[in-house]
Amino acid sequence: MDKDQYNLLTKLQVYQFAAEDLGMFLNTHPENEKAIHDFNYVIKKQQMIKEEYEKRYGPLTPDRSVEEGDRWRWIDDPWPWEIE
What per-residue confidence (pLDDT) applies to 60? Predict the structure, then answer.
């Protein structure tokens, strides 16, 4: 795994963690406007990073492997846990 790929994957994990954490906070504080704003921001950033990663390095999950008119790409690249 090259440095850029590693950094992008790390950013994605940071935003995924933040989304989970904010989601749990919102379960007990559903009307906290700042948390709702932060959650929406984190989700948008997470999606942007995930799209950039998959555009450059391939799908992260099998459900993202087929796009309209495309072929099954999940098996083309190393599995996420095989990347060194």
Answer: 83
Q: Give the total number of structural domains in the chain.
A: 1
Q: Which of 62, 56, 55 is nearest to 79 (CA)?
A: 62
How far is it, in rounded angstroms, from Cα 19 to Cα 70?
30
CA–CA separation, 66 and 59 (whole Å)? 9
Residue 34 belongs to a domain: yes
3-state secondary structure of 55: helix
Q: Structural domain of residue 37, as residue ranges?
A: 1-59
pLDDT tens, residue by residue, 11-30: 999 999 999 999 999 999 99
